[in-house]
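Design request, tokens follow.
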């Protein structure tokens, strides 16, 4: 596949600066993927905006466009348009009154959906389709996108054709600078909110959390601070914000004292956690609440909006974000995801000591910084070459096209060493040639709130002949997306390869392709993906 790196000027930008992110479980660098376009940002002195002015009439959401019918709208992942099949799958459709060639969404690198699906499959059950979020499957795998020299993003756009006539998969990849600049990061002030309700007594829940927190305490720096809040039927601050230094023994004692109790008052835990974080807030530090729970709330407030409305000031005025770590075979996925979205944060899921070690021992100490706040992406498809497109996943992260450059609208928080991937199904007009799409990412500097943008392009001639012959990174992305698509489809359709994504193979064929890919890459994460697909095939 050819690589395209066409710079496009971007208007009204300030000098690129940014500082640091925490626990985005998108992915560190890895793999051997080739890339599409990487744009270069202009400074604040010049250039017109690379995208048509946001906010075309009827552009609310703008995630689906069918140029042949003159309708577009924001729908669920993988809809081919407002068809009977969409209604059968329970996807709601908003039909725009005029064609819309823009797609806008807040960045998201959650991975909890994929982790929980693997756990469910390992227990011999298919996951509930409502818990399957394709973007979290896609973002669970390392990508080798080019990275910027400093703060900010690179934008990579590439793609390949599917087995279905005129349809291609187009990948938009965003990457921040590499991790590893640990000495230069700001200190962390982390408030851990630990669920000690009776349901956490199951092996692999509270015991795993305690082991992970103990290990993490030894990995953090002396100038980092930790607070500990527990909740069951009530919430309690077990340890106020404590500078580690020579007090690590005090922190270990507090962790060791955790024991399961009664019911799950998640609302009280989050409220007390934020109050503790505000009281112990440190200027110039990364202040974050880390919630460890099975999210099976059964006492007090159980609605994410109600819970977080009570701590709105802490989020808005103090910039304290929420990171959710899910545990347990029975897991309140929907509530945890909603909490993370409303709390300007993200989620992951851990089911093994290895998972927990990666999150708490490796990722947390390394990724204390934020490099971008309220990051959003907008992809402009060229109506001269694109007849139809749809965004895969990001159902809960979609943003009105008008709001792309409205910096009051929430986006996603991104840290160093991570990537964000979005996948589109795109129907190219027969015989069309030339510019296909421009992708732009916009974000705010975490300290100054100054806005910045970066763009990248892709041409029709950059589309490879087959997804299955594309570079490694795109093949892994396609495999993960097809797997998620199959799990969201009715059982018979998934088995036979009649998913909503173009060119969807049956689970049997997808297992074979994933096995072959795992063998070539020698990547344990890809091997795990192949095993999960094989299990799903057997269960159907």
């Amino acid at each position: 596949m050819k690589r395209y790196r066409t710079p496009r000027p971007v208007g009204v930008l300030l000098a690129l600066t940014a500082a640091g992110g925490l626990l985005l479980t998108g992915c560190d660098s890895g793999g051997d993927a080739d890339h599409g376009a990487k744009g270069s940002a202009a400074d604040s002195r010049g250039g017109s905006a690379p995208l048509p002015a946001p906010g075309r009439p009827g552009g609310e959401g703008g995630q689906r466009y069918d140029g042949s019918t003159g309708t577009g709208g924001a729908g669920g992942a993988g809809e081919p348009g407002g068809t009977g099949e969409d209604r059968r799958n329970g996807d709601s459709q908003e039909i725009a009154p005029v064609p819309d060639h823009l797609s806008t969404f807040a960045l998201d690198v959650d991975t909890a959906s994929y982790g929980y699906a693997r756990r469910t499959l390992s227990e011999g059950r298919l996951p509930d389709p409502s818990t399957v979020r394709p973007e979290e499957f896609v973002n669970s795998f390392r990508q080798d996108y080019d990275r910027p020299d400093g703060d900010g993003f690179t934008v990579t756009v590439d793609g390949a054709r599917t087995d279905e006539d005129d349809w291609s998969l187009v990948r938009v990849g965003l990457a921040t600078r590499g991790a590893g600049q640990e000495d230069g990061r700001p200190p962390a002030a982390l408030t851990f909110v630990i669920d000690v309700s009776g349901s956490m007594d199951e092996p692999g829940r509270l015991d795993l959390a305690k082991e992970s927190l103990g290990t993490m305490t030894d990995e953090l720096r002396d100038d980092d601070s930790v607070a500990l809040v527990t909740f069951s039927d009530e919430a309690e601050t077990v340890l106020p914000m404590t500078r580690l230094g020579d007090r690590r023994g005090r922190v270990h004692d507090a962790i060791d004292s955790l024991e399961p109790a009664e019911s799950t008052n998640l609302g009280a835990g989050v409220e007390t956690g934020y109050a503790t974080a505000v009281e112990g807030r440190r200027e110039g530090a990364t202040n974050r609440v880390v919630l460890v729970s099975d999210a099976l709330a059964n006492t007090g407030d159980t609605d994410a909006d109600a819970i977080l409305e009570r701590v709105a000031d802490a989020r808005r005025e103090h910039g304290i974000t929420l990171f959710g770590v899910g545990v347990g075979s029975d897991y309140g996925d929907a509530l945890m995801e909603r909490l993370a979205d409303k709390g300007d944060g993200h989620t992951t899921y851990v089911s093994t000591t290895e998972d927990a070690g990666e999150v708490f021992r490796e990722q947390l100490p390394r990724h204390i910084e934020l490099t971008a706040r309220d990051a959003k992406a907008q992809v402009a498809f060229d109506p001269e070459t694109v007849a139809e497109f749809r965004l895969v996943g990001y159902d809960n992260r979609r943003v009105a096209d008008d709001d792309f450059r409205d910096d009051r609208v929430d986006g996603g928080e991104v840290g160093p060493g991570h990537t964000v991937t979005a996948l589109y199904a795109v129907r190219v007009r027969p015989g069309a040639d030339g510019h296909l799409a421009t992708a732009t990412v916009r974000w705010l500097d975490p300290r100054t709130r100054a806005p910045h943008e970066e763009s990248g392009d892709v041409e029709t001639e950059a589309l490879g002949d087959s997804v299955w012959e594309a570079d490694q990174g795109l093949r892994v992305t396609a495999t993960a997306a097809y797997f998620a698509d199959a799990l969201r489809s009715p059982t018979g359709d998934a088995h036979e390869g009649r998913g909503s994504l173009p060119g969807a193979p049956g689970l049997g064929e997808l297992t074979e392709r994933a096995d072959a890919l795992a063998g070539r890459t020698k990547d344990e994460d890809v091997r795990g993906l192949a095993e999960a697909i094989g299990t799903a095939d057997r269960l159907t």
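Comment from the thread starter after seeing the answer: thanks! Residues 1-62, 69-98 have pLDDT under 50 and may be disordered.
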